[in-house]
Amino acid sequence: MYVVYIDILFLINLVMDIIIFYIATMLLNRAIGIHRIIYGSVLAAIIYCLLLYIPALQRISYILYALFTPVLPILYIYKPIHIKEFLKIYLVSAVVAFIIGGSTFSLWYITGYNADISSMSIGWLLTIGLSIGGIFYLTFYKIRKRFILPLFEYEVKITYRDKAVCIKSILDTGNCLYTPIGHRPVIIVSYDALKDLFTNDQRLLLDKYKNNVLELISREDFKPSYIIPFNSVGCKLGVLLGIEADQINIYRDNFEKIAEKYIIGITFNNIFYDKSYHALLHPDFILN
Predict the structure, then answer these.
(1) Residue 153 near residue 38 (C-beta atoms within 8 A)
(2) Do 206 and 216 form a contact (C-beta atoms < 8 A)?
(3) In the predicted model, what is the mean pLDDT of residues 102-113?
(4) Is 178:186 a contact under the CB 8 Å cutoff?
(5) Does the pLDDT at position 102 exceed 70?
(6) Which terminus of the chain has a smaller tally of CB atoms within 10 A, N or C?
(7) Burial class (CB in 10 A: 0-12, 13-18, 19+), 139
């Protein structure tokens, strides 16, 4: 008879869930804080451990229980708005879990030299899991960074009131954001990349109210050109401050485009999970 310690079971599930959700976040290209991933992983580990403590749950098929275990953590971490988005996140997380979990336990048994399961080191299991997760993360990160993302990279120079900044951007085919009035395409840029375009007083206000944009909009001493409502992952209803740039220069290899009087939507969140890019180009900027 094997003895299962709930604290060890919780620790194993917690570490593996953190690895799985962290890698899934990278694959999904979501700018999500590590603290939210950790809290969601704690929730997943607790739900899994409840199987040992609640008799009613023990009567449920393990396969069915395992299928529903990630649901609440995914809802907490990613806050999907539509069922299609949820299914995409669920599928990516499940595939990552299958690869990481399968590889980890396979190597665990192989390196255990057929030892009795009760005598094998839990620390060694966690070491293998972290190593497999790290290899998977770095491999995909390098492939994506070297071969996939460069196809969508553009250099952007934004000129606003006689000031200019140069930003590394990426073409986002999923960016379908337009202004509510005039239906003008919006390029989304992180506030940190635009700071030099504003006066000291404007920066003080933006820094003070960056977590409360609605209150900033109501002030008389800072009026954006546009107020742009949007729906996105983790925000069912939000608003972006919009400014009208005097000129936008877009460069890539031999490609160059100059656009005047285009709208910049300011976001106070990171554009890319590792801060490699600071702007999301609207497809209209390239196609039209």
Answers:
(1) no
(2) yes
(3) 72
(4) yes
(5) yes
(6) N
(7) exposed
Give the torsion sign (CA, 28, 33, 37, 40). negative
Determine the topology of domain 152-287 in CATH.
Cathepsin D, subunit A; domain 1 (2.40.70)
The least confident of 23-37, 44-58, 79-93 is 44-58
pLDDT tens track for 212-271: 777 777 766 666 677 777 765 444 457 788 888 888 888 888 888 888 888 888 888 777
Q: Dig out the tokens for 246 from the structure.
A: 């005097």
Tens-digit pLDDT profile for residues 33-64: 889 999 999 999 998 888 777 777 667 776 77
pLDDT of 43: 92
Answer for the pair 222, 242: CB distance below 8 angstroms, yes or no.
Answer: no
Query: pLDDT category, 152, cuts 50, 70, 90?
Result: confident
